[in-house]
Design brief:
alpha+beta, five-stranded mixed sheet, Endoribo_LPSP/chorism_mut-like
């Protein structure tokens, strides 16, 4: 089986640089055999591709893509901490979706992150998850993703 870094190459995906924290925290930290990431926004080259509430300002389909971007930023944070190929299992994904009051499609949005994890990690990517609708996120981002992985 291909390593995770080889799988990224097969998929034509390059990990982005680790996003600079927007406050007083670190992007990822190792605790025993796990790495926990801070919430990652869908930064592309240091900027958000969209802002606002999903279901009002941002289409759910676009937010799905932003969840994919945010989880790549989380994977990049893990890679910088311990190396992507040390990941033995993705344990948990938490997705926050800045939601218009009537929007209830948070699980479909966070599937953007979950499905990309499955593409990269295969069976080792099977994880538990929360998809949470919130009133707002930092910098008016539409989505934020946290990741917990087990490492060898």
């Amino acid at each position: 089986m291909a390593s995770h870094s080889e799988r990224l190459k097969e998929l034509g995906i390059s990990l982005p640089p680790v996003a600079a924290p927007v406050a007083a925290y670190v992007p990822a930290t190792r605790v025993g055999n796990q790495v926990w990431t801070s919430g990652q926004l869908p930064f592309i080259d240091g900027a958000l591709p969209a802002t606002g509430k999903v279901g009002a300002d941002v289409a759910a389909e676009d937010a799905y893509g932003y969840a994919r971007t945010a989880v790549l930023n989380a994977i990049a944070a893990v890679d910088a901490e311990v190396g992507i190929d040390s990941i033995t299992r993705v344990v948990k994904v938490v997705g926050y979706v800045a939601s218009a009051p009537e929007f209830t499609g948070q699980p479909a949005v966070v599937n953007g992150a979950s499905e990309l994890i499955g593409e990269i990690f295969g069976d080792a990517g099977a994880h538990v998850r929360s998809a949470v609708g919130v009133a707002s996120l930092p910098l008016d981002a539409p989505v934020e993703i946290e990741l917990v992985v087990e490492v060898g």
